[in-house]
Request: fold
Amino acid sequence: MIAATTVAFTPSLSQKEGRTMRIRAALALVLAVAVGLTAGSAAAQWPGVTPTEIKIGNTNPYSGPASAYGTIGKVIAAYFRKVNEEGGINGRKVNFIS
Reply:
């Protein structure tokens, strides 16, 4: 009886291929760091965000048959007033529009 066997062959990388892979990995790392560093300044460029204010909009029913849910909007507004009294978010005041 002859048993069939398979032999796994893993070719080794040549020095040139290994160096190329290390260079690609280093470039990927540099690109990831560069994107990470520029992402911090992107928040200041979003609509509604300025160096001193963050605008947040909300829609709640304050009248009509669903007006009981308007209490939620009033509570959220009270919370953001408290946040502003404590200095805001990272020094920015929250302008809650409802």
User: Anything to note?
Assistant: Strands lie at 53-57, 93-97. The chain has a mean pLDDT of 80. Residues 46-97 form one domain. The first helix runs from residue 15 to 42.
